[in-house]
Amino acid sequence: MTTLIDPPTVGGARGSGPTQGRSSAGSPAGSGSRSGSSAASRGRSSRGDVGWRRRLARLTPATIISRLVLGVLLVGYAIISLYPFAWMVSAAFKTQQEVVMGTSLIPEQPTFATLAETWNRLEFFNFFFNSLKVTVGTTLGVVVVYSLAAYAFAVLRFPFKQWLFRAFLVLLFVPGVVTLLPIVLLEDKMGILGTHFGLVLPFVNGTAPLAILLLTNAFKAVPGELRDAARVDGAGEPRIFWRVYAPLARPALITIALLTAIPTWSEYQLSRVSLTNEAAFTLPIALQNLNSTNVVQYNVLMAGALIVVIPVVILFLATQRYFVNGMIGAVKG
Amino acid sequence: MSATTLTDRERAADSATRSRGSAAGQGHHGSHRDNEAHQGKRQRGAASQSGTRGQRRREAAWGYAFVAPAIVLFCVMGAYTLFFGLEVSFAQWNGLTPTWKWVGFKNYLDLLGGSPLYSPEVRQAALNTVIVMVVVPIATVCIAFPLAIILNQVKRLSGVFRSVYFIPYVTTGVAVYMAWKYVLEPDGAFNALLTMFGLGSLSQPQGWLGNPDTALGTLIVIMVWSAVPVAMLLYLTGLQSIDGAVLEAAKIDGAGWWRTNVSIIRPLLAGTTAIIVLLNVRDGLQGFQIFLLMTNGAPAGRTNVLGLEVYDLAFQKLLAPTLGLSSALGWLLFIAALVVAFINQKVTKER
Description:
The structure holds 2 protein chains of 2 kinds.
Chain A: H1 2-5, H2 27-42, H3 48-57, H4 61-92, H5 96-101, H6 113-120, H7 124-154, H8 161-170, H9 176-190, H10 196-206, H11 208-220, H12 224-232, H13 237-248, H14 250-266, H15 269-274, H16 283-293, H17 298-332
Chain B: H1 2-25, H2 30-47, H3 53-88, E1 91-92, E2 101-102, H4 106-114, H5 119-153, H6 158-170, H7 174-184, H8 189-196, H9 215-240, H10 244-252, H11 257-268, H12 270-286, H13 289-294, H14 306-315, H15 323-350
Antiparallel strand pairs in B: 1-2
């Protein structure tokens, strides 16, 4: 909750535990600088009632103006960020007639009919379920497969470990479009083209470099003494992994789950070329299909878009602490 | 007894290397550090070899068991597909006939200028890709850096602003592109907005994506709009790691707000800028989803990019034998991405 209010937790170095394996060294300096910079910018006495009053007294016209300018800039960019979404929501609540006629942002007679119709008659309920299936499948696959692999890379000793690790990292540089065609041909041969399983497999593999990088760092940050202690108590590797490492690396596991789920929910390219049966369509494909089949009805299209976007926005807002940490970890890796 | 003391000492050594690595380079020296750790392990292995061979063998067996699912998936979906693509890039094939015709390096030569049918198309796409690769990173930095500085100075509501700014990034995909298309229609909201502010002469009667002169620029603006959030986040993180004493010193020396930001903070965050630029260069090189969904190269190839060209040659040419061409172009992109990655490493190491 503090993340919503307190800017310095962006770095997340504090309290995020093993996720920040690499950057944790910078954390003390970071928090130190924070108090320093805030002191520099806001005067020395920032705590308590007295400081607050003194600050109020020092509000010269110049500071008021500069704050006003900053506020306008911040709000301005917030408006730019939300601009297309505002129109998406607006159109989704308009009737067909109004969306053609007017260009007013606020619908004159807001209606739920468009959303309801999109959800029911256009079977967006179905597509939503398909998307959910693919996303959950991919996310589970990534978490299970790569937490196991990352545990081995981080903790266990075995020949060719570094070679294997590097092989996975090279995948990071393969443009997705290069493997698209071979995957389609291969899956056609295997008979899984067009199934949801056929989407999950390449999606899971596509997340490999990121997942291995993040999770290996997280597991490396777990103190080795814990493993030794568990071994003395007679625990085998699976038990140590499950009982010691997985719980301690939970923030990293949640992070990688999010970083997998959000792009998978919106994935388009591979789904487009492999899903041919309409009953198997995921939301992005259904939406694009809606766009290309008949004369574009923007209220219906935007209702569909809203159905696609809302789960992602809710998921992001609910878990943004993990998400933000993960973005930083992913880039640094 | 001796075994336990050894492991303790090893562990201390290992953690020492680790902290050294992370202190030195904030984690950018990944491979370097791994090397160190690896060497440390080798020495250790030699030291503790006697007596624990069975144990080590068991550990190795567990190691392979744990990575096995990942490796199997990697071999099938990663390595196999990659090399199959390489094989096809030396052939002429439409994907339907049971056999293909080997043509050697012809596909590569065709792409690089040998084919009157495809090379003009590729050249246009390459030009657009280069424009995207140059403009998007620069514009992203120019917006994200001031935004992060402003956001970093605000105490209240800054978390709310940050969340709002992040929404374009997390929602990237079909839905948002549709919304942009809707807004940019000939009688859409954006033209209406311009007219409202008395800038009606700037509005686009063909729609912003329909006019060949504005289509690419419009897409670039949307790409920047999606790229700013991550860049802003990285700058924010960088800003919080700047030593307060430096800023204090600047203040004592009489540097104002503007001067501090331009002459002190900007150079201190040069490393962050390098990362942001390279991330966006890579995305510009490989990404094509927005082009596929919003214009599919129209009007007249003016928004075609290399990634889209690969996709187009593979999936949108139906019966023409262009799969080899597609794979060859894909591999050229792969090589270009490796070059970018190499430069990335050089730049971050020099820091």
